[in-house]
Specification:
Radius of gyration: 20 Å
Structural class: mainly alpha
Largest sheet: none
Number of strands: 0
Order of helices and strands: HHHH
Mean pLDDT: 82
Number of helices: 4
Distance between the termini: 61 Å
Helix content: 55-70%
Shape: flat
Length: 87
């Protein structure tokens, strides 16, 4: 249904449809509370956990070990540079 409508709308255009993801909100009144919980959750997560979560949400797979290593390397370099600037 939805996929066919999208394909019909894009019939004369060059495109590559990867996937369609439908999500529905169950309650609209709790958005402020959800945002607060989301922010609190981020504060409790490490930067690596946040990056892994974002990667998984976008690509629907776990972050590869190689990317995890690169992220940790970049994070350590950034924190070292920040510490050196404070001195």
């Amino acid at each position: 249904m939805l996929r066919q409508e999208i394909e019909d709308a894009l019939a004369d255009k060059n495109y590559r449809l990867a996937r369609i993801v439908s999500t529905y909100r169950t309650e609209t009144g709790n958005t402020t509370k959800e945002n607060e919980n989301w922010k609190r959750g981020l504060q409790e997560m490490s930067p690596l956990q946040i990056a892994q979560s974002a990667f998984e949400k976008i690509y629907q797979v776990e972050m590869p070990v190689e990317l995890t290593g690169l992220f940790e390397e970049a994070y350590l370099a950034a924190t070292r540079k920040e510490e050196e600037e404070e001195e």
